[in-house]
Specification:
With about 150 residues, the protein is of the alpha/beta class. It is built from five helices and five strands, in the order βααβαβαββα. Bound molecules: 1,3,4-trihydroxy-5-OXO-cyclohexanecarboxylic acid (DQA).
């Protein structure tokens, strides 16, 4: 099983970015923890971070046939990107949306996700462990039959 993990804009700044909201771990540390969990479950992961919407669109667009599932934290593009939503719908690779913070308890503009409807589900508010929960959810989902 191969899972693509995509992280959107400003997540490269984790560790120093608003630690009261996003915690003290860097993205590399969060991804290392996820990689440990994946290894223990014999799952291959490939992770990327980009501040460019088009790069994220390209990576989603190239995922069909190469990856069994996607874990996506679209960051700010969650709330704005029709292009990311269309890319997810186009490839139809099962995707779980992750947010470190509880976006629903924050500013009103964060309550809307344009991408979540193109995902099998959303995990928000659990910090870095949200990526691990997303991995478990994807493994469980992919183990079921979908007609
Ligand atoms: C975020 C929440 C978004 O609203 C915000 O723009 C981010 C991070 C999160 O992981 O909590 O950059 O996706």
């Amino acid at each position: 099983m191969k899972i693509l993990v995509l992280n959107g804009p400003n997540l490269n700044l984790l560790g120093t970015r608003e630690p009261g909201i996003y915690g003290a771990l860097t993205l590399a540390q969060i991804m290392a923890r996820l990689a440990d969990e994946a290894r223990a479950k014999s799952v291959d992961i490939e992770w990327h971070q980009s501040n460019q919407e088009g790069e994220l669109v390209d990576r989603i667009g190239a995922s069909r046939g190469r990856f069994d599932g996607i874990i996506l934290n679209p960051a700010a593009y969650t709330h704005t990107s029709v292009a990311l939503r269309d890319a997810l719908q186009a490839v139809a690779v099962p995707c779980v949306e992750v947010h470190l913070s509880n976006v629903h308890a924050r500013e009103g503009f964060r309550h809307t996700s344009l991408t979540a409807a193109a995902c099998i589900g959303q995990i928000a508010g659990f910090g870095p462990i949200g990526y691990v929960l997303a991995l478990e959810a994807l493994i469980e989902y992919l183990g079921r039959k979908h007609t």
